[in-house]
Write a structure and sequence with these properties.
The complex is a heterodimer of chains A (189) and B (331). Helix content of chain A is 31%, strand content 2%. Chain A is built from five helices and two strands, in the order H-H-H-H-E-H-E. In chain A, strands 1-2 form a two-stranded antiparallel ribbon. Chain A is globular, with a radius of gyration of 16 Å. By secondary structure, chain B is α/β, with parallel strands linked by helices. Chain B has one domain: TIM Barrel, CATH 3.20.20.220. In chain B, helix 3 packs across helix 4, helix 4 packs parallel to helix 5 and helix 9 packs across helix 10. The longest helix of chain B is centred in the C-terminal third of the chain and has 17 residues. The chains are: A mainly alpha (189), B alpha/beta (331).
């Protein structure tokens, strides 16, 4: 059975101020390759948006996440499972601050420039990545997938700078405990 | 009012006079000149030093800042330094990937993306705060710009992406080369629908393709640039010694066409290595010299009071020229 996808409420904190990052749980950085390669997701956008609804945070998920986090071996097991599933489907690199629900479930951290706010100016006329021209730009993919489900407006959110201390952590545990609420602002600015 | 900016690449070497020589060609014709930040991911004299060299030649610089080589600590520090030294304009961009440069083995940083850096810079200036939340005394002052490529996919998202940049802090935008005005006009229609041309000065990128070698390079190696077949045929159809002239004529025609498009504030002329040709191109396009007082350049405290919302009429610099024709500017 598929583990829960990394999802997050679309209602973001309306904070226009600067993010106060929650203290990171000590985890070794993920030793990520310096120039990621674009990945096209292996699951349809529609199925991911549907799954999202099942996994909105609630009191039970929050308690579950707190319990998982408190027991080291459980946390490691859960994090490994999350990594396995998300790597397979999205090419997840475990940045720990998942943007997938706002990008048509196309991972921006697989962009070679790791751009979280949209494509760079180097996209080829065929939609190819600037750095790996034979691969499709993750933001071209993101726009098509989001647009096909009427969610293109999600891409207009201002995605704030990420916390690099969080690499390697479970973003589901963070999401269910409400730690991702300062990842983006609703309208930008 | 029609604003002209141009672009200068600093030298691969430690001689500021190279910048001074290049910007001298542009002094009377432009509101401000971009000093590139290791353009094409190849090492050059830094954009802040090049900006100071331009100011010493009484040319107002636009200091380019890319997210490729510095993390958020270094970026914010360089932005503060720029303001402290009186560099009045900052242009924020993502930057070409190191793969395309002379140090392909370098670590690409990309800690922030260009929109996050715009947002951080705006907060530094308007709220006097670093990303960390720490207070800046005094806060920096500069006019903030960014870039866009109207022709690159996904075309439906490009105007929206500019909207994000404007919301994050962009007060002017320079575009990638416009050789074919049709896709640019479609993008401008979306920009006008979103009202972005009223909140941000739109400068269309233009430039002459001065040799067949440059044409080949643009066609094959510059990401996100498409040279229309018609222009390519035109340049290849003249004798080799006429290519540069033909390119200047084509560039002047493009500028004239762009000038007719509603909502466009001006052009950004990219003739790196051919700065001396820029005046002739502008003359052919019927653009008058930029005969404004250069109160700003080189003087202490020359940063434009962008944070205060108002723009000083009659002072030098990019926004003042553009603002002379219109009213307030949403900062």
């Amino acid at each position: 059975m598929l583990k829960p996808m990394n999802v997050r409420s679309t209602a973001a904190a309306p904070s226009a101020g600067l993010p106060a990052k929650a203290p990171a749980v000590a985890t070794a950085p993920a030793g990520a390759p310096v120039s990621p390669r674009p990945v096209t997701p292996r699951a349809s956008a529609r199925s991911m948006y549907l799954l999202h609804r099942l996994l909105e945070p609630n009191a039970a998920y929050t308690r579950l996440a707190a319990w998982l986090e408190a027991v080291p071996w459980l946390r490691r097991l859960f994090t490994a499972a999350e990594k396995g599933v998300k790597q397979e489907i999205f090419g997840c690199r475990m940045c720990g601050q998942c943007a997938l629900p706002s990008t048509g479930y196309s991972c921006p951290m697989t962009c070679p420039k790791q751009l979280r706010n949209g494509p760079c100016g180097g996209v080829g006329s065929d939609g190819g990545c600037e750095v790996y021209p034979q691969m499709r730009c993750v933001w071209v993919t993101a726009f098509e997938r989001a647009d096909s489900e009427g969610r293109a407006g999600d891409l207009l959110r201002l995605q704030l700078p990420i916390d690099h201390r969080v690499w390697g952590q479970s973003s589901w545990i963070r999401y269910w405990q409400g730690r991702d609420e300062d990842l983006w602002t609703e309208t930008g600015g | 009012m029609f604003t002209v900016t141009a672009e200068v690449g600093p030298p691969r070497g430690a001689d500021p006079a190279a910048v001074v020589r290049k910007v001298a060609h542009l002094r009377e014709w432009t509101a401000a000149v971009n000093i590139t930040d290791n353009q094409g991911a190849a090492v050059r004299l830094s954009s802040w030093a090049g900006s100071l060299a331009a100011m010493s030649a009484e040319v107002e610089p636009i200091m380019q800042v890319t997210c490729r080589d510095r993390n958020r600590i270094a970026l914010q520090s360089d932005l503060l330094g720029a303001s402290a030294m009186g560099i009045p304009n900052i242009l924020v961009m993502t930057g070409d990937h190191p793969k395309f440069g002379d140090h392909a083995d370098a670590k690409p940083v990309f800690d922030l993306d260009s929109i996050q850096l715009l947002w951080a810079a705006k907060a530094m200036r308007d709220e006097g705060r670093l990303l960390s939340g720490r207070e800046l005394k005094p806060p920096p002052r500069w006019f903030l710009g960014s870039v866009e490529n109207p022709a690159a996919p996904p075309a439906e998202f490009r105007a929206g992406r500019l909207g994000k940049k404007v919301a994050a802090g962009a007060q002017f935008v320079q575009t990638q080369y416009v050789f074919d005005t049709a896709p640019f006009e479609r993008w401008m229609a979306q920009v006008r629908d979103l009202g972005l041309h009223e909140r941000c000065y739109i400068l269309a990128g233009v430039g002459p393709i001065s040799s067949l070698r440059a044409l080949g390079h643009l066609e094959a190696h510059v990401p996100g640039v498409q040279v229309p077949a018609e222009l390519s045929r035109r340049l290849r159809g003249v004798p080799a010694d006429r290519v540069a002239d033909e390119a200047m004529a084509a560039c002047a025609e493009t500028i004239s066409a762009i000038r007719q498009i509603p909502g466009v504030a001006g052009v950004h002329v990219m003739a790196v290595g051919n700065e001396h040709r820029v005046p002739a191109i502008l003359q052919r396009a019927g653009i008058p010299k930029a005969l404004h007082a250069r109160a700003g350049a080189g003087a202490e405290g020359s940063g434009l009071p962008a944070g205060s919302g108002g723009l000083p009429a009659g002072s030098g610099g990019l926004p003042a020229r553009a603002a002379a024709g219109g009213g307030g500017h949403a900062g």
